[in-house]
Amino acid sequence: MSQVSAFADRLSRMLAFIGAIGVILMMVHVCADIIARIITGASLPATVEIVSYYYMVLVAFLPLGWVERKRGMISVELIEFMMSPRMMKISDATVAAFGTLIYAVMAYATWITAIKNYVTGTFVVALQVKIITWPGYFLPSVGFALAAAILAVRLLQIVTDSVETIRESEA
After folding, report:
1. Which residue among 16, 40, 129, 153 is the one 20 to 30 A from 89 at the CA level?
2. In degrees rounded to 5, what are phi and psi of residue 125?
3. pTM for this model (two decimals)
4. pLDDT 10s digit of each residue in the chain, 171 long?
């Protein structure tokens, strides 16, 4: 189990790092566009389209697994202080199970959309230049799938920890 957890950690960190590189590339691209506009009076072709269809999608979806691994999603703990440790484990397992299911469904739905866009060769035209956009549609699927995998690992950890605790108490 620890090998799976270590692999999930490495993978989530790698995709978060790629997301961070995306932020830097987006900043450089937008700054270059602004400088080009000041110097030449013309923008770089397709800056808005590349930022919208690639950089922003990359930054928003690839780090989802890392955020889940760090437990950085929004949580509301209204009654947690009243729960026993056993009830906390049940609550955590339930949240992990539902989260895994939701992320998996979202990964599947966005994958279907990505495949349709790949098959049709989706693109936009900017300043009479054809910008291919279908590859960007795969990024949400990757992000959602990784987040689902991270939550599935968390669920397995909760369940195996609970089983070990029960065995220890019976011994």
Report:
1. 16
2. -110, 125
3. 0.83
4. 577 778 878 888 888 888 899 999 999 999 999 999 999 998 888 888 999 999 999 999 988 888 888 887 766 677 777 888 888 888 889 989 999 999 999 999 999 999 999 999 999 988 788 889 999 999 999 999 999 999 999 999 888 886 565 555 555
